């Protein structure tokens, strides 16, 4: 009942935020009033983003520490293939739709006015190389709050004299430099944590103490987030309401860009309701719509926050508790997906680029469309788990030689499209987790026969179910307990490595003797404890 109530409150907060926003708009509230309306949402986002760093680190390390190295390699390869495939399919869908509907009319330029953005010297190659650099940060502490970004700084202009005339032209030159921007390098942290977790898995019992540390840290963060789940509806209501109040010239812009908005939304709907479910059904032979039903709360949260990272804790809970996806899959696939894959963003970028070309009546060749599809796919990789900006679209526009200044005209409708494409991003990541779990289920079940992995999973169950005092004990467990207790009585100075790191309390001498007598009595009577 609590889960259903939280789902209802989350959906109602989105609807109520939209209604309140449109009700308050006609009163033209002051800037102070708007700030106060959005203040709970601002604090809510800061609290959630505060949790992202420890959540990602503990989740990835604790998950991969329970996976054999060959299974981790397989999960990683399948994950990358899935994300690249879905991103390209979403881009292709957007290009087909915008070319068919043709929402860009050159007359709209007169209605919307001139844009203000400038072209950038950055290329798609620069963006791709930046992602490779960020994968391997030189300082892991710095990666928690900064990442590398290429910038072009203007230098002393060169003066060029024409040979045919005495005219002198000035050419502005730019120098490429690497700078650090104040944004968490999630991709670098995931790569570091992946390697860390795999090495822990290889070390096994020798690293049990460190494995327990990250398991407990993950349990603490998830328990904390569970307590904060009831604050999500308040934060979402505040964010949605403030966004709608802040929009300038809503009616005029909606009329001018109506076909553009319809094109983007149709593309996102086709990708989320046709492409992704069809891919899931072909691989798993299961109903994709039953899967989507279990993801409703995560999708509503994604729409309300417009952030894949802020939705990550809700997505974890939806997949693991509602859909019973193995946590070893979700804890690796979802953080990676929230960072490197942006299906909705790639589709949105492709439509925006071709829409601007249509505004200027520029005919794009087949080669231009192929270039756009590749560059938008690359540019959307690593675009971050925070609300997406316009930087990547500017890079794509510059690559195909289109003016970037008119992109600012689309900002007035971006508040809505950003929320919808974030929901599509989260849905794509979730379907990916379901597909990867299906493909790797047999190898993960085989790994569960390993004694260390079995103990770790039991410890996680104890942490996640603190009210469960006792676990079922089989006859084999009783025999093992008797043997271990007898050995410990004969040689009390010898302890196993796994026992040394166990969460179970260590009994004193009297408790051991009592346990031994009880076990021997049970063994004689051949009583099975269940």
Layout of secondary structure:
Blueprint: H1 2-24, H2 31-64, H3 69-101, H4 108-112, H5 124-135, E1 147-154, E2 158-161, E3 168-171, E4 174-181, H6 186-203, H7 208-228, H8 232-246, H9 250-256, H10 258-284, H11 288-293, H12 296-305, H13 308-322, H14 327-340, H15 343-359, H16 366-380, H17 391-399, H18 411-447, H19 451-464, H20 475-490, H21 497-500, H22 509-525
Antiparallel strand pairs: 1-4, 2-3
Query: What would you call the shape?
Result: globular
Global structural class: mainly alpha
In DSSP terms, counting alpha (H) and pi (I) runs of 4 or more, how many helices? 22
CATH class: Mainly Alpha
Rg is 28 Å
- Uncertain spans: 384-389, 469-507, 526-530
- Which percent range describes the beta-strand content? under 5%
CATH arch. level architecture: Orthogonal Bundle
Question: Could you describe the 3D structure shown?
Answer:
It is a single chain. Helices cover 70% and strands 5% of the residues. It has a two-stranded antiparallel ribbon with strand order 1-4. Strands 2-3 form a two-stranded antiparallel ribbon. It is a multi-pass membrane protein.
Features of the shown structure:
about 525 residues, mainly alpha, Proton glutamate symport protein, two-stranded antiparallel sheet, about 70% helix, disordered C terminus
